[in-house]
Each structure stands twice: as C-alpha cells, then as structure tokens.
Amino acid sequence: xxxxxxxxxxxxxxxxxxxxxxxxxxxxxxxxxxxxxxxxxxxxxxxxxxxxxxxxxxxxxxxxxxxxxxxxxxxxxxxxxxxxxxxxxxxxxxxxxxxxxxxxxxxxxxxxxxxxxxxxxxxxxxxxx
Length: 129
Description:
The chain has six helices and no strands. It is mainly α. The chain is elongated and about 65 Å long. Pfam families: DJC28_CD.
C-alpha cells in the first residue's frame, strides 16, 4: 500500500498566505520588529494573549464591533421613536435583534445581552452603553 494514500498532501493555506506576504515585503516595517516579546505573552491562556496582542495592534474583536453597531442602532431607533412614536420600527428592531443574536454567539458570557423591543428601548440604551 502506498504511503501517499495514508498521508494525503498537507495544504497549509495560512502558511502560504504569510509566506507570500513576507516575500512581498509586508513584514519589513512592523511595529516592534526585531524586539523580544514581553514575558507576559508566554504565560497563561493562549487565546487571551492572542486577543491582547491583537488589541495592542489596533484590532477589535468581532463581538466588540457588533456591540458598537448595536449601540448606535438603538440610539438611532430611539431618536426616530422620540420624533414619531407611530413610525413603523418593527423591521429595524427585528434586524437589530438578529445582530444582537450574532453578538451573543461570539462574545464572552458576561457580555451577553437580551433582545430589544419598543417597550424596553430606554433600558436597552442604558444596557448597551
């Protein structure tokens, strides 16, 4: 039996992307290039360290971006509701709740938040600040 059938060729997509980026000079002028990493990056939970390094690099987690979008949308809906309480906002609230559901799927458990309705719009604004 051939060894190729047991061990199919390995396809390293991320490695290929990084190699191509490096060849194009993308890694030449990185902040902190050539300096050692702080010791704290080598202890504890790997995922938390990855998040810290990403935050230091200016990247926000997806759930945090969603949190800001939800907050802004709640404020926009509240402003429309204040001007015209009879305005039909059910479609926007439905789309907002879908975004809240997506947020809740990827955020840390303490950051989970409930759905928004016209009846709880004021408390939702406070909760999402």
